[in-house]
Amino acid sequence: MLESRVFISHRFAFKTRRALAWFGVCCLMWLFTQPISPILLAEGPPAKPAWKSHPVLDWANGVAPKAELPDSLRSLGAEQELAADTTVTPLTRVVPNRAFFVGEKLYFKIKYGLFRAGSATMEVLDSIQVSKGRTAYRIRTTARSSKFFDWFYKVRDSVETYLDTRGMFSWRFYKRLREGGFKFDLLAEYNQTNRKARVQLVRYHNETPLRVRKKEVIELPLPPYVLDVLASFYYVRTQPLEVGMPLFLPTHNNRKVYIMQVIVQKEEVIRVAAGTFRCLKLLPRLQGEAIFKQKGRLWVWVTDDELHIPVLMKSKVAVGQITTELYQMEGVKGPLPSRIE
User: Fold this and answer.
1) Per-residue pLDDT tens over the stretch 123-169
2) Which of 221, 261, 272, 282 is buried most, with the most CB atoms less than 10 Å from its CB?
């Protein structure tokens, strides 16, 4: 009987791990999709990105402190240029942003049924220069399992994106996954003018210190203004959302570019630890290969105002339901007209 209970508990933890680990990646990837509706402004193509203003990977020479990127990523040919392409896209899109600013930080608690399974954060860290005349928001999301679930399946994940402040497209994406025995790093660099991405993937053995099990470098063709899975969330926050409208967005993840779709289903009043809000209920869908191992639907509620802050997520899994709830906000700019006192 005891062995049976331990096995069932372990299976429960296994089924929840993707929702914990991919909170800042796949949930947001499924949810936040939006058609490209650019406001054009004459502008020449930017210079090659240079990360010298911030301690991250340099596009040209791969220089980065160990605190930012592991040696395994820096040695995967980061000094190589993307292949030349005759297709050049002037970066003319301008997307007005009144939804988020540097200093915003959102805190979430993740529940599996009645149990506190973990926590997550989403934070706009700063704004840095990435090339001549271009700046980007540096945005990070983290996910970690609770102490109880650490005993079954320890999760310590971090995802970071560099999102162009003017055009709301991706320059760079770094994913660090530590999920039980699964240890994985991904670095994607986007050449938006030549519409190519260089993606470095590293899988590690389950041991300390980390030892590379498999490493790979690939190049991908890109549609214009492609977004990574985290940047797509922040892009959609800048857009108007209306009940009944279907939204689409090409989004890169791992080895492919997916077409993301989300349907704005209806308006609802939602009460969470952070307060009571008038919200829009969204149903995200993925066109193409599935990302989650579990089969089921994901629903997300965002505030019905210009900020579109996510306050609640619910995902059906094989056994039970995952709930992600907003409980604290910091650095939110402007009033929240959707809040109900």
Assistant:
1) 999 999 988 889 999 999 999 999 999 998 899 999 999 999 999 99
2) 282
